[in-house]
Inverse folding.
């Protein structure tokens, strides 16, 4: 059996992080979202993959190559125009024989659920119950059969949501050929499935035990914290005297933790990092490769991507910081509104009481910069000394 992973889109709701990478390549607990998914599918016994790529596809291709590193075989399909999931599968009709799995590349699932789905013999959707299904497809069911799919309805008739993980038989391709353009301007696989149902094909569903969707940058923080709970403690780098390590901490090869650093796990530190002296790294923090965390720096519940420097007198709380960023001395990323209300980011109510900043790649700040809760800063932007920043900053901006 082959698994098709849909990884062609940008993921616009993840901006500013996706200005420079596809959503599936965003890191959680030190690995891209797509790698976590691929490993779970492989653990379910499926070793052949087709990755449908498009937006900034070179990053996916160069990272995963032919899959040998993971003991799997990977081929690629280029979706130059992202015209929907059914459009993507139509291009693969001659490459797929027998039953096959299809899944969105930006979800997280577990091997047990994937294995159970793959063992089926008919078209089957994976589902889960959610409290607010308005942003997802919703299923109406009759016993163990799907009767109708409502795609992103303002008033969903049920709370059984489509999880974006499917088992298909070859019959799906005839339905795809007959699928019309949706009101959203795409050829959607849920429309194809509805055609199967309307033409008398029985379509089943299976409830998932575990599923995570990451729609917005702040969702990365929750999933990162959850995954770090399973971290295994190991130190491949060098730890000087007078370093305090509590809880589960992984320190990558070539990294140096200098005297006076205080690290409370779970914390993941990548390769070739320079940490300390006299810094405080708090739980649920992931730090990428080649990063610098210097003196009098405090980081809490954050994701710091590769090649980023946080070197002097900085506070970073509940934030996501892209690659190749540099925070000037005294830059502070506030994570709590003065009135204690929910934090708004990019016009979206995050439903979070605590959220710092989201910085795209290559952002630089001068000394004593203050970033207010929920600020989104586009890649390549520069924030001048002493600036106080709120709201949304477009890529390649300068704020003096």
């Amino acid at each position: 059996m082959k698994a098709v992973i849909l990884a062609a889109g940008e993921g616009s709701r993840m901006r500013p992080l996706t200005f420079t990478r596809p959503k599936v390549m965003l890191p959680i607990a030190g690995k891209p979202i797509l790698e976590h998914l691929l490993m779970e599918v492989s653990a379910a016994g499926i070793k052949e993959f087709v990755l449908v790529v498009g937006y900034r596809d070179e990053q996916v291709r160069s990272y995963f190559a032919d899959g040998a590193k993971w003991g799997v075989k990977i081929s690629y399909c280029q979706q130059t125009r992202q015209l929907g999931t059914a459009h993507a599968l139509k291009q693969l009709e001659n490459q797929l024989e027998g039953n096959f799995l299809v899944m969105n590349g930006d979800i997280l699932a577990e091997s047990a659920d994937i294995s159970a789905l793959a063992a089926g013999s008919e078209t089957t959707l994976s589902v889960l119950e959610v409290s607010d299904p308005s942003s997802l497809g919703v299923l109406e069911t009759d016993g163990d059969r799907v009767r109708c799919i409502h795609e992103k309805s303002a008033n969903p008739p049920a709370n059984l949501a489509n999880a974006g993980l499917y088992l298909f038989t070859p019959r799906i391709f005839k339905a795809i050929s007959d699928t019309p353009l949706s009101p959203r301007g795409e050829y959607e696989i849920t429309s194809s499935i509805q055609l199967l149902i309307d033409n008398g094909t029985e379509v089943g569903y299976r409830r998932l035990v575990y599923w995570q969707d990451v729609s917005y940058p702040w969702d990365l923080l929750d999933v990162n914290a959850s995954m770090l709970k399973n971290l295994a403690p190991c130190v491949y780098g060098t730890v000087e005297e007078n370093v305090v390590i509590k809880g589960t901490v992984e320190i990558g090869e070539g990294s140096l933790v200098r005297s006076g650093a205080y690290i409370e796990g779970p914390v993941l530190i990548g390769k070739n990092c320079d940490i300390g002296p006299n810094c405080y790294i708090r739980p649920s923090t992931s730090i990428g490769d080649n990063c610098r965390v210097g003196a009098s720096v405090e980081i809490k519940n954050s994701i710091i991507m590769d090649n980023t420097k946080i070197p002097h007198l900085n506070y970073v709380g509940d934030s996501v910081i892209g690659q190749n960023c540099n925070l000037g001395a005294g830059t502070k990323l506030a994570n709590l509104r003065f009135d204690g209300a929910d934090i708004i980011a990019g016009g979206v109510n995050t439903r979070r009481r605590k959220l710092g900043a989201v910085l795209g790649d290559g952002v630089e700040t001068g000394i004593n910069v203050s970033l207010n809760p929920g600020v989104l800063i586009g890649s390549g932007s520069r924030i001048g000394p002493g600036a106080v920043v709120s709201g949304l900053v477009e890529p390649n901006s300068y704020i003096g």
